[in-house]
Amino acid sequence: MRSNGKTLVLGLGNIIMRDEGLGVRACEHLAQRYRLPDNVTVLDGGTLGLDLLPYLEGVTDLLIIDAVNAGAPPGSLVRLANEQIPQTLALKTSMHQVGLQELLAVMALRGQTPPRVVLWGMEPLILEPGLDLSEPVLANLDTLVASVVAELRSWGIPVSDPLKAS
Fold first, then answer.
1. N or C: which end of the chain has fewer CB within 10 A?
2. What would the pLDDT profile of 17-73 be if each residue is shown by its tens digit?
3. What is the set of domains in the chain, with CATH numbers?
């Protein structure tokens, strides 16, 4: 299905808690390496929770990137869509996922849930103070971002090939 509406790529996480900051780091990676059309916004949502509601107004396609506790080996990619997302968030990796769960619930109550909501994430290894991603998460960061790009392209969004580092 082609996306002609407003698309939001939302990176979540706390960057001072190592793998917990995966969503933010993946969004930085995406924004630095790819060119996206004007109707696509890449947003560092950090741990804002319900404070993100204004950014979601009018969004037709929502792609969330986050650390996800799915019981898989660290560094494993996870893709969840629509109804699968709240079910998985019942197994919280971190406090900000409470905010994401509430955010999705409030959007549903207001009748503002985007028709398409996908969460791309990765199983974390280390959720303690520090700035660096763990080795298995860092090793799969490019694969995660490539999966996000492939998802956006499957929605009919023209994403450029990776930009050359200068």
1. C
2. 999 999 999 999 999 999 999 999 999 998 888 888 889 889 999 999 999 888 899
3. 6-154 (3.40.50.1450)
Distances (CA, A) of 20 to 45, 127, 147, 161: 13, 6, 19, 28
Give the tens place of pLDDT for each residue, 92-150: 444 445 567 788 888 888 888 898 999 999 999 999 999 999 999 999 999 999 999 99
Chain-centroid distance, C-alpha 24: 8
Alpha-helical runs (H) found in the chain:
22-33, 53-56, 84-89, 96-109, 135-139, 141-154
- DSSP string of 12-45? E--TTBGGGGHHHHHHHHHHHH----TTEEEEEE
- Residue from 158, 162, 151, 160 nearest 61 by CA: 151
DSSP assignment, residue 130? B
